[in-house]
Design a protein that fits this description.
InterPro entries: Catechol_dOase_N, Intradiol_dOase_C, Intradiol_dOase_core, Intradiol_RC_Dioxygenase. With 319 residues, this protein is α+β, with helices and mostly antiparallel strands. It is 31% helix and 18% strand. It is built from nine helices and eleven strands.
């Protein structure tokens, strides 16, 4: 999409298709769309045409009052004001409206058998450290130790070697490292690589349920809507390798509280997993004599070509 400043500069001298005068509820939508359709980027024009159409339709359908609209603007302003590099309130807004899940479904469609995606959430960090397979990702002394063993394959069942895997989870109190400025470096997260067999494995802690950040505008809105702010116990994963569609997903613990009412609509049944008791064979193979809990999961990545084919077919399908 073209830079908004460049697009505005290029179109500043162009003649407006419709006059901006004597506007009312019957003609303002068409006029605003005409003003926003002068740039050279066709995709940008299409997006803004549909955005204006639906926003105006929303106002008309609800008979939106000035007081209600100003309350909404004040709420959006408050969301922006509370944002920091480690407090991404607007991502959480997208999450609680289900928009993050919807956009991921649109951008990353999955062929049969591929692991489903879910939301990124506001706590992914580019400051995560590179880790070797078998390393400890979480150093929370209060967390219940867990060893995680995973396999990554393509949709044909072939191992995917050399994939970059981001992993992150909250601590035993339900807080991420980004919420703790006093921590000396990142914790509860790491970047691993799959080996020649497509495997990666690491030590962590058993995830716990937790509330999303609700001490700001998002929390106020959830309370007003009568909604709880909680997420079920889960662990985040993100996979990247050339030739494969990027996968952002998470694993959710079966039986966790809020599994059926996730505040950000991220749970999918195929991503719900069981924590097992560590068996002797696995403990010996990975040198984990003292860990009592084990999580195993096989991930399947779609290729770029498979995802692109699906995106094209969905884009042209009748609605």
């Amino acid at each position: 999409m073209a830079d908004l400043r460049d697009a505005g500069a290029e179109s500043a001298d162009k003649e407006m298709p419709l006059p901006a005068m004597d506007l009312n509820s019957g003609n303002i939508t068409e006029t605003v769309i005409s003003f926003c359709s002068q740039g050279s980027d066709p995709r940008m024009k299409f997006i803004f045409q549909r955005l204006i159409t639906h926003i105006h339709k929303f106002a008309l359908e609800t008979r939106l009052s000035t007081e209600e609209w100003m309350a909404g603007l004040d709420w959006l302003e408050a969301c922006g004001q509370i944002c920091t590099p480690n407090r991404k309130e607007l991502i959480t807004v997208s999450d609680i409206f289900g928009l993050s899940t919807l956009v991921d479904e649109i951008q990353h469609p999955k062929p049969r058998g591929a692991t489903l995606g879910t939301i990124l959430g506001p706590f992914h960090s580019t400051e995560a450290e590179e880790k070797a397979n078998g390393d400890i990702l979480s150093h929370d002394p209060k967390g219940e130790p867990l060893f995680v063993v995973c396999q990554v394959r393509d949709t044909q069942g072939n191992p995917v070697a050399g994939a970059q895997v981001h992993v992150w989870e909250a601590d035993s109190s339900g807080e991420y490292d980004l919420e703790k400025p006093d921590l000396d470096g990142p914790d509860g997260r790491g970047i691993l690589r799959t080996n020649e067999m497509g495997e990666f494995y690491f030590a962590a802690i058993v995830p716990v349920p937790y509330p999303i950040l609700c001490d700001g505008p998002v929390g106020q809105l959830l309370a007003a809507l009568g909604r709880h702010p909680y997420r079920p116990a889960h662990m985040h994963f993100m996979f990247e390798k050339e030739g494969f569609d990027k996968l952002i997903t998470a694993l959710y613990l079966r039986g966790s509280e809020y599994q059926d009412s996730d505040a950000v609509f991220g749970v999918k049944s195929s991503l719900v997993v069981d924590i097992q008791d560590m068996d002797k064979e696995t403990a010996l193979k990975y040198n984990q004599p003292s860990v009592k809990k084990l999580l195993k999961y096989d991930f399947t990545l779609a290729s770029d070509a498979e995802a692109e084919t699906l995106r094209d077919s969905y884009s042209t399908a009748p609605r």
